[in-house]
């Protein structure tokens, strides 16, 4: 898919007002990405702001099932000359992280009234806030985002997390599939052994008729079924948010008109299950299956999976081996706080993960690297072009991978404030080849230089070729329990 890329330009508005964050709150990193010298890591900005901020604030996010998650920070006193701009900026950036990583529709604020008011204005007046309210609030939780101020932390709803086991069922004859933006994968699995796998190129993003998606998935399932004596269960993964096998929001269906989405797409996988005679059929976010595949392969829990492909997928397996009701949509969370950071073409927001950990990241770094690919290449082909140059030892391509590695190192430190991971599984098309080695090498350098304690705790894991081909599909196939 060719996605419109936005150059670094201009400042952003928040709640309809121009916000200027003092430079001292946007420190330069010690390890600078070669092709993005303006990069200002979220983690360093937050730490700089917190070092001057004495007023405690606690945010609590409530989900539809009653789960509640807390996050505490500090802000400047309202009498401080920088309070209006800086407080609104940092609280909104952190609230955005919490919304897309953890999820929720109601945000409780235990802190100054001005902070709650700035958030309310953001979700009602600012275009990026309205996007979050529409996608996360109305489409996922079926209600607009609501901001509620309480007098003190004791008035907040108590933290409550619902964890559930995920997959690991390998008995019987199963099919696993994974739906990406440029290809779909399928595997036939018999008692935990992959007996067939196939990867098929497709172009789902701007298809207006969801029959295209239905037929594509059905074609892959039928091909896998031909290699099994019977089909006992089907499990799948895809980018997006799925609740009880219903599609809440998914980029794969962005081209489908809203009324058709409501009438056909929401229950597309339920329709597929009926076509397979109602056998156990589960579909979850692809990031969750990525983390599950890593946990199964490593035999360990506390795994954060990050896949750099068409977009950025993430998932987390807890220390107990289950999943939380988090969204883990790290493609949308801010990792760069520079006000002129590149903008995501869908949400319009700046500095979000998709522009740093995906084919889009490679595409936007081509110009700064001095690489001019053949005209007319889409992002997947641009990535292949860079991979070819990297295989030839091209220094320009090397700088692209080094830059992504620096981004990843600082992002991991930021994500660590919210995820208690001990293993980080990194995969996806961007990681293919020697370039992937350089991404991890630069990420480790960042951790060693800036966050040595975290560097000693975190282990990087990259799946081998067998796991790349089969691991995700086997993990997806393991999702349903047999009746």
Q: What are the main properties of this structure?
A:
four-stranded mixed sheet, five-stranded mixed sheet, disordered N terminus, 483 residues, 19 strands, Cytidine Deaminase, domain 2, 14 helices, Nucleotidyltransferase, domain 5, alpha/beta
Helix content: 25-40%
**Helix/strand-derived class?**
alpha/beta
CATH topology of the largest domain: Nucleotidyltransferase, domain 5
The top level CATH class name of the largest domain:
Alpha Beta
Q: Could you say which overall geometry the principal axes of the C-alpha atoms support?
A: globular
Report the span from N to C terminus: 39 Å
Oligomer: single chain
Description:
The chain is an alpha/beta fold and 483 residues long. The chain has three domains: 27-155, Cytidine Deaminase, domain 2, CATH 3.40.140; 164-285, Nucleotidyltransferase, domain 5 (2-Layer Sandwich), CATH 3.30.420.40; 290-472, ATPase, nucleotide binding domain (Nucleotidyltransferase, domain 5), CATH 3.30.420. The chain has helices spanning 42-52, 83-101, 113-125, 127-140, 211-225, 258-265, 268-275, 286-298, 359-369, 379-391, 395-415, 434-450, 452-457, 465-477, and strands at 13-14, 17-18, 55-62, 68-75, 106-110, 146-150, 164-165, 173-179, 183-190, 193-201, 233-238, 241-243, 246-249, 281-285, 303-308, 312-317, 322-323, 423-427, 459-461. The strands form six sheets. Strands 10-9-8-11-14 form a five-stranded mixed β-sheet, with helices on both faces. A hairpin with a 3-residue loop joins strand 8 (173-179) and strand 9. Helix 2 (83-101) crosses helix 3, helix 8 (286-298) packs across helix 14 (465-477) and helix 9 (359-369) crosses helix 10. Mean pLDDT is 91; it is low at 1-18.
